[in-house]
Design brief:
The complex is a heterodimer. Chain A is α+β, with helices and mostly antiparallel strands. Chain A contains 12 helices and 11 strands. Chain A is globular, with a radius of gyration of 21 Å. Chain B has a two-stranded parallel sheet. The longest helix of chain B is centred in the C-terminal third of the chain and has 20 residues. The chains are: A alpha+beta, B alpha+beta.
Chain lengths: ~350, ~60
Amino acid sequence: MTTSSLRSRRIAVPDAFAAIQDYYEAQGWTDGLPVVPATEDLVWEMLGTFGRDPTQSLGVIQPRNASVTLEKIAINAVMAGCRPEHFPVVVAAVRAILQPAFNVAGCQATTGGAAPVIIVNGPLATQLSINGDAGCFGPGYRANAAIGRALRLVIRNLAGLIPGEMDKATLATPGRYSFCFAENEARSPWEPRHVELGFAASASLVTLTAVRAVYPVMETTVATGREILQTLVESIKTVGFANYYQIGTGAQLTLVLCPEHAVEMAAAGLTKADIRAYIFQEARMPLRRLKGIAHYGNRNWPSWIDENDPETLVPVVRCADDVVVVVAGGDGRHSAWLAGWGVTRVVTEEITTPS
Amino acid sequence: MPSVSVITSAFTRAAQARAASLGMPSVRLVVLPSPLASRSVTEVQRLAQVYAPEIIGLLSHS
């Protein structure tokens, strides 16, 4: 345990709920909802189990060019309503968005308005009750709500991304309040994402992706896993979906399969790798449907896209590995694909806890 | 090195905030009318004719 002191300013406000909340709001430090006041004892409690020096910086976050110290992350985690045991997940998520490939200053400032989405894998997801089952994209679980909210408060308060100022999102998405869920490893027929990436089964991982929208796909009719996959493909082939114009900058797609669909796909002999390859091969739009509309004026296509042939099939990603496949959700036959932000890469970070 | 940032009016606050973050509050901005993305090539060329002297002027006077 460190003996360092906290560096942040101490601010005295009248000891009344309304006065405290009004103060936070007036400073522009909230997401609009009331926050937990970041008192010194709560900040220490948040840092305590992590056992690290609060002055340790994880790096500099853009566009505000601010140092991201554990102390500042802890303050935002307290405000978001995190329990101290959530803190290692928040720290891992912050480390992830600091990776240059995530392009936090881009995806959180651009008019596109993507939400940072945290997908948690490994035993910590269960230990912390991070929901990956029924209703996992929605409200009702403190871990999901508070961890996702903490990340957004870090982005607001440390990266300086305030709507209408450096955050220029046209619409943004409700996912920007909080968007965190776990892979439903218990009901997945496949190996979980962290094992797929080469981590030990005992490791825990966050995957961060910047998501503009959740496109739900209800498939209650067809009989085989392959047909379910084809319905998903038909849904992805959507006019106005920016990915088709941004594959050259590394646009990615995240496919969230509900357990029932996943089990039927596995029964049809499909692996996660097969699904990725299928999406890459089949979710293609002819160039004539893309030309002259939507994001065409800012298209970024690799040289192998023949722009002279209107029948050229443009894939939704530039390679199969640019599709992320996870299993989540509860009973029912609703899967979803998450529209990525085209100049951000999906990143991962192992969650480290105090030894 | 002399430099100038060319933005559209919708991004004025964002540009000023970013410049302040980087310790360059007096960075030179040339503000074009917004929106730009929906303009035709001809319109953009016309804008370029209008604003080029200001941009060159700012680059020439450090």
